[in-house]
Amino acid sequence: MSTSGNGREPLYVVRRSDIHGTGVFAARGIRKGTRIVEYTGERIDNDEADRRYDEADMKRHHTFLFTLDRKTVIDGAIGRGGGDASYINHSCEPNCEAVITGRRIYIHALTTIQPGTELAYDYQYERTGENDGELEKFYYCRCGAPSCRGSIMKPAKKKKRKKGKGSGKRGNSKK
Q1: Thinking of the domain 12-138, which architecture would CATH place it in?
Q2: Which of the two ends of the chain, N or C, has the fewest CB atoms closer than 10 A to its terminal CB?
Q3: What is the pLDDT at residue 103?
């Protein structure tokens, strides 16, 4: 539970979530733009992150890794120094966003959040382009939002249609 800097009641509480396991919920109204909590944990490199969370050995996806930059990942697992932010679940219609400031990650309110509402941000797992269909199934989404894309991965980039000869608008052609 987090107490605000001005001594008011906590911004959020951690409890059971309908989305997945444990979640973080607004304990009172949170204004758009508010810095809610820092994502903390052990700072490790990519090789160590891969060693700790080998997807090939996992039956279902469950990690607390957050990429800070090209070389650094934060392992937010509670046993590794992670805090309440580790319990914020994914949503395809997020009310929060992760903001990297310097070498720290903060969770900010994207919208005004009403008391009792679960806090969520879009995890946007990177696509590799190699086996994305398989990964989408592994990283399936449980958010239940009307616009749920079915996966916690970044939305697939839409392929742009190439304009070929003779395509495009018709008109003003000579017959």
Answers
A1: Beta Complex (2.170)
A2: C
A3: 93
Structure tokens at 62: 């469950």
* pLDDT band, very low/low/confident/very high, at 173 (cuts 50, 70, 90): very low
Cα-based distances in Å from 148 to 21, 119, 143, 175 = 19, 16, 7, 49
DSSP 73-137: EEE--GGGT--GGGGPEE-SS-SEEEEEETTEEEEEESS-B-TTPBPEE---BPP-SSSHHHHHH
What tokens were used for 13?
């509480």
Radius of gyration of the chain (CA): 20
For residue 148, give the nearest of 88, 85, 94 by alpha carbon: 94
Calculate the CA 114 to chain-centre distance.
20
Q: Which amino acid is at 32?
A: K
Rounded to whole angstroms, the Cα distance separating 161 from 175 reads 28
Stretch among 31-40, 57-66, 137-146 having the lowest mean pLDDT: 57-66
